[in-house]
Structures are given as structure tokens and as C-alpha cells.
Amino acid sequence: MVFEMGKFVSFFVTVLFLSFCFTSHAFALSLAQKYPSYKYVFHEFNVDESYLYDAEFIYFVSKYEEKLKKFYKRSLKRGKQILPTIQGQLANDGVSDLFIYLSMVESGFSPTAVSPKKAVGLWQFMPATAKHYHLTVCKSYDERCDTASSTSAAIAYLNKLHKQFGKWYLAAIAYNCGEGCVQKAIKKASSDDLSILTDERSKYLPYETREYIKKILLLAMIGENATLQIGNEKSDILENAFIEVEVAGGTVLEKLAKLLKMKSEILLKLNKKMKNGIVPKEKERYRITIPIEKVYAFYLRYELPEKRCSIKPHMLSHYVSLGETLESIAKKYHTDAEEIKNVNHLKNDYLILDQFLVIPVPKKVFENTILRHK
Fold first, then answer.
1. Range of the domain at 256
2. CA dist., res. 285 & res. 303, Å (int)
3. Does the global pTM surpass 0.85?
């Protein structure tokens, strides 16, 4: 009797398993019909098409599909003004424009989004990572909130991760949990296959990361599939394109908005990196974003002050040491960082270790330096 009962239980479990496999396969087939865009999405992220039949991915889709559709619509509406900038930068810098869905997952297209861990902006940079990718973070100015600057930094980081791991889905995973975490997971799993790395039983990756990559793929399938609806929305977005222009340090955005005859809240929203609506005074000029339809009004009505050309006649040589910046060098020689930049024809503020610079200095500093070296 016990033997017969055991055979029955074994048979019942087998039937349940086969039923689950059949149901999963059928759901995957319906997914393929519902989201024909999955082939394009998987191709762009270097994911094998067989992942559509992964039982855990199927379960994730069945559980979160409707919720993520609503999240997608909210995010798209919120990001209407910034999407053209992000898409253009991604396309121009060798990263698939589908990585726009990574930004969607990170921030919901809110330029000022702040995570519990204090990551900020569309791409959720921590202060240390922001500094590494040359984003300015200070009390008056946070480039993590700037669409163009933060997207450039994200592109640089993603390209670096892709070069390191060789596959775009691994770059996305590493963006979430870090390079070391991905390296350990691949070593432990003895594979970089997505189905294996996201296995819920083995837990090679943290739970948040396993959900993260599935969320990106599903949102991309949702977004790329709704061709007619998204096509109309994208055309609406492109009508509201934007452009960057140079303004003087200290410019008050509210006054500039009046000059351009536009609502100040729109200009402030486009330039959330400028805290308190005032362009910092640390540099002579900064770039801000304005609607492209206001570009003619800007150049007709806004007069950019001429750059100061007075450069100190006395020069000293200097080789850049580790950790030095234009500001720290200028302070050392009692001179102006902008003058150093102009004399050395530097396009930006970034310096390289052992880089040779000519430093314009006041007469007294020049004479004291000569005397010390005699």
C-alpha cells in the first residue's frame, strides 16, 4: 500500500511539473506574440532569445507586467522634455538607445531623484562615482541633475563596463550592483549566462539586481512594442526639442526667462542643476538648456559679456601632481584658474598627471619664486 502511494505521489508530482512546463511554454509563446519587439530588445542587450522561455522571467512578467506598464506611462510623461537629449547622446556615443530604459528604472526620468543611499539624478550617481566621471557636486551646483552632463557620464561608465564584461546585459547588471559583485557571481556560477546568473535558488546576484535586469528588459519590450502609441508620443516630444547655450556666471534664470518671454518655472525645470535658480559665479561661463524655439530670442536679446583677456605678463612652469585641480594650482600661485585655462588652451577643467602647464602669475609671486631657486 505504501509502495502504491509512493508511485501515486511520484506520478502526481510529474504531472504537476509537466503541466507547469506546458503552461510556461504557452505563456512564452503568447509573450512572443504580444511583444514581437523582444527580439530587438534581447539583441541590443546581447541576451539570447531563449531567455524568453526562462521560467523565472515568465513569472516576473506575469507578476509585474501591468504595474510596469503604468510606471512606463508615468515615466514617459515625466521625461517628455528630456528624452530627445538622452536618446541623441546614446545614439551618438556607441550605446544602444534602449539604455534609456535603464535610466527609467533608475529614476523614472526625474532629474532630481534621490535614492535612500543618496544617489542623485537621472542615472543615480553617488558622489564618488560622479566625481570620478567629472561631474561637479557642490552646494550651489549639482551636475548629476543635468540631463546632458549626467548622460555623458553614464555613457562613459556603461562603455567602460561593456569593455570589461563584453556583454551589454552584464554592463547593466554591473551598473546596479558593481563590478566586483558581477565578477564574483560569474566566478561562482562558472558562467555569464543570464538565466544562470539570475537563478532564484542559487542567488549568484543580489535579489535587487536579479529584479533590476528583468525590469529593464520588460520595460524595453513594453516601450519598443507600442509602435503607434510611442511613435505619436515621440513625435510630440521632438516638437519640444532643446538646445544648450552659454550664459555668464551669476545669471538669474528668472530674469533670463522674462528676457526670453517664457515661463520661469519651465526654464528652472530644464536647469535643475542650478540650485536656487542662479548660475554659479565660480566660472565666467556656464551652459544651460533652453527650448529650441527660444534660441533666436536668446541670441537677439541676451548679450554674453566678453571674456576677460587681461593675462598676467609673468609666467612660471608647473607639472601637475596627483589630486591637483586648476583651482588648487591657481590658489598655490595666487592667480586665476580661468587665466591658466586660457593660456594653456585647455578645452575643459580636466588635468592629467605630470601635464605641463604655463602659469600666469603676479609680479611679486614671480620674483619670490625666482629668488627661492637661486
1. 242-301
2. 12
3. no
